[in-house]
Batch of 4 targets.
Target 1
Amino acid sequence: MKFRAKITDKGCLELFIHVSGTVARLAKVCVLRVCPDSLCFGPGGSGGLREARLWCEVRQGTFQQFRMEGVAEDLNEIHLELTAEHLSRAARSAAGASSLKLQLTHKRRPCLTVAVELASSLGRARSVVHDLPVRVLPRRVWRDCLPPSLRASDVSIYLPRWRTLRSIVERMANVGDHVLVEANLSGRMTLSMETEVVSIQSYFKNLGNPPKSAVGVPQNRDLESMVQVRVDNRRLLQFLEGQQIHPTTALCNIWDNTLLQLVLVQEDVSLQYFIPAL
């Protein structure tokens, strides 16, 4: 097993810092799946979709150098379990750096070594090295590290402005624990919550929907029919406050009374967050 990757582009470096920070905000322990064309961050353990779960893919285009050899020719992957906050701290030390290098090493135990090249005030380069302990996962548990295989969602809709959505959910979280998310294929979305003393509803329209063929939504679904899912407000707010990648595309997919999926895409990064229905 071998893995080595390097980022020298300033924009890509900032993006990786934001990705690692987002992962750390949403998961304490994660599995880093090293593939020939990407790095994938997934959940630790086999909780399935009974709890909120994160999947994030950073494609090879983010790295200026990328080499890996998996456990075998027919299984060209490596799965490493690590503490997400450790990686985030190491990545943050690369703010303003000239490069960041990731390498699988063995220093008394397996480590993901993060080497950062910094420029000093005298123009001399200096290095900061972080050795992050990792656990190399055996093949028998790899299936738990894959994103879920799901049927086409009942509704897919573009999300409203991020700040507006976060502000609304934050206010709702101060009042109650649950939020009802509804949407249809005519670009309408509703967020609502109700307690014994207060009822709150927020309406959005003209948000737009991706082409049905692009997201697999059934062709014969009524455009005006609302699909709903009730989720934990804290999990939704955690995602809205935690993500740092500034996506070019932000989608919400709903499986009626079953699951809420939030999808963010920016250049060579895609992030999915699944929140099960209550």
Note: Residues 32 and 41 are 5 Å apart (CA to CA).
Target 2
Amino acid sequence: MKCIPSVFTSLEREAEERNDVRAAGLAKFTQDHRFVMSLHMMCDTLPHLTELSTAMQAPDAIYTTVKPLVTGTLSILRGLQSMPGEAYQSAVQRVKDLQAQGFNIKPPSEQETVKFREKVFNPFMENIVNNLEGRFPDLPLIQKFEVFNTRKFPDDNSTSHREEDIKMLAEHFGHVVDKTLHEWRQVRESIADSGLAADKAMEWVTINLKVSHTNLFKLAAVGLLIPTSTSDCERGFSTLKRVKTTHRASLSPPVLNAILTVGMLGPAIEKVDINSMVKIWHKEKPRRSQL
């Protein structure tokens, strides 16, 4: 948004000095009030979406923090629907300033401004809000896993602390409610003073109580398996880019999956016994070369 005059100038020079048809087309397309207004509109919106995306890319992001982040972002976006941000409000004046600087751009009329608001701004904001709501349909249920967060246990050791949350989780995932509640009451007393966050408390349950507290174990396992952070996805894409190069584009899905699994979850190369692996590989079937 700040460097748009430089973009206009560069495109015009490319079109004039090099007879670049594409640059000429882009210069005409960008020097339009609708382009400038769209740019200002996105400058009000995208920073909030970027902050949400960045927070969810953190390796230690847990689902119990998703609800406040998403609801906060949705609240801001809904506010922008009714009252556009500063950047969008200054868009018309920006077009006038660009025209004053000598660029071939015409400020919008009042009718064109209203039309842009109805045909572009409102649908854009509505689609973003709907898309964000559609991506997190189970936020209220997911938030119930915060029951495992011992840092939010009451100081008075209340015996009924968050039992409604346990009931809802047990019912939703098909567990016996009474047994799950009984197991929760026992475990709650054991971890009350541990100071564990929700994910660490659930990890403790899955490690130590798999046999003795089967219902609560299953709930904790579900809580740990719910994907929240996008860091693993990003790491997977990066690994895939390194593995499946133009020279290895014909790797079969099973082989590619095995390589990606080793690349992402395997031990450090210094700890791998390459010689023993090569010997096993040679024993599987006759090879052209022999050790």
Note: Residues 244 and 250 are 8 Å apart (CA to CA).
Target 3
Amino acid sequence: MCVCCFEQCLAQGEGGPLTMWLSVVALVGLYYLLRWYWERQVVSHLQDKYVFITGCDSGFGNLLARQLDLRGLRVLAACLTEEGAQQLRGQTSDRLETVILDVTKTESISAAAQWVKERVGDRGLWGLVNNAGIFHPHCYSEWLKMEDYMDVLKVNLVGLIELTLSMLPLVRRARGRIVNVSSILGRIAFFGGVYCSSKYGVEAFSDILRRELQHFGVKISIVEPGYFRTGMTEPQQCLEKLKQAWEEVPVHIKEAYGQTFFDTHYDGVKQGLLKCSTNLNLVTDCMEHALTSVHPRTRYSAGWDSLFFFIPLSYLPTSLSDYILTRSWPKPAQAV
């Protein structure tokens, strides 16, 4: 088609769909350009700001502490063990300080809050990163003992809430940030029943807190990682816990599922663990942005599996997402 004919088609309205799609592409491009400019603005005087991070013995917390230390922030790192604290101090500058914290114990939380208060003084606490978390054995809900449920909830949800409330006056004083580490399993629940429950709770608590604190200038961000290789997903340790959990399952439950079911499930868990991403920076970069950007996001989805599979899946009709998630699962021995 010649140029004159093309122009004539446009004039007659035949080019309407093309014009519409070009407009849509232009608007989408403009949106992402403006968002990029909006989000790249960095908070001033970072070297004067204190950030308290939990779970710094290893994994995301350990990497974030080192990452923020390099940025010049004053990092207050909470570790569960003295060994973890000592190793972290050996990898960072003299600015970074450590404290021993067990988020399941009220007295430990109170002591940590007082320790932070003595260091930040009237400046307040700019950032609180609730990163500490645990995962139960990778097994079905009725294979777990009630103490497994309680242990996960105490660390991942109850401890997070208690620590946040204890630090909140310091964060409010600084008009700072709270970054809560949830999970993609806090958006779509399909595996690890009590872990998902704890992370759904983190999502709900964060949403409520964000709305309650908006007039105080405090910003709340939620980081939702996909599958990453950390201490919680170390293959050998996870598989050993899975075997132990199965061995301790009551006989009537073992008969309901069957050994073949367990063996197939075991192989599936093993393959999944081996596929976990080792690029933890995808998560810690989100945390860092939430702490240092003038305009942090409300939610950060970290990992390609999170962005391109689980998030889209969470918007599908429930019956369809159920089918996609469970179509390859084995059938129990006593399945109807």
Note: The mean pLDDT is 91.
Target 4
Amino acid sequence: MEVDRVQAIASLSKNVDTMPSEFVRSEDEQPAITTLHGVVLEVPVIDLSHSDEEKLVKLIADAAQNWGLFQVVNHGIPDEAISKLIEVGTKFFELPKEEKEVIAKTPESGIEGYGTILQTEIDGKRGWVDHLFHKIWPPSVINHKYWPKNPPSYREANEEYAKKLREVSDNLFKYLSLGVGLEGHEMKEAVGGDDLIYLLKINYYPPCPRPDLALGVVAHTDMSTLTILVPNEVQGLQVFRDGYWYNVKYVPNALIVHIGDQIEILSNGKYKAVLHRTTVNKEKTRMSWPVFLEPPPEHEVGPISKLVNEENPSKYKTKKYKDYVYCKLNKLPQ
């Protein structure tokens, strides 16, 4: 069954101030009502080139514990590699609809491919977003069938970004591991080590006639271990803090790091997955490039045994990642 792409709906809605009712959120979700206006949340910005590793570990552990979210600068990924990632992803979404549909999701493709609807939403509501998913690492899980052939430099740009991103993520795992008193390698090993899957998503949020009523992506925590995200410069990320939704300040050339559910589980609740959502813009297209670092489907994740004791009993079940995903997507208890 073909789904109406949001990009097509947006182009029909250009000069009107209405949109289909399935995009109108309930009052307790509408950004105009639920956002704390006039305040931009300055989440921790951490300089990864800091020479004092002990200080870096403390900054990252504090941010993961108290925010579930931080931004990193001087991360070692060249500006050019990020610019190319943005350029080729943008060009893909500017292609004619027929070309994008060539790599559309199918019942067999699972998460990968070009699509619009991601999970069952309550009351049949929809997010104002189209997306593209494909795996970028390790080579054993990559299926180039779901990578755009156009623009021709798409593959090269994504491979270069994946290579550089792995260095950043390895360091983040090390600092997070040290931050809870483990050895540097333990946290990454607990989620699959070198078999960790890097799943890229490109979010495309076209201009929306009623951004006061719609959301791009509804409130959620990420299922992944970490999510490392490149945004474009259009405001849209919001986090829930102290009972309010706040816009997160855009920092040029920064990567945004979300603590996901699996890191919260591994740390037995010491680190917190961040509750976040995305808003949309009336005039501008917002895009983002999150990479979800996911355990292999059959890999079991639970609290690391060294972090569990009589004073701090296990707060989470140990289960296969694929079973965790199934429960989360179908809104079943974990």
Note: The CA atoms of residues 303 and 322 lie 17 Å apart.
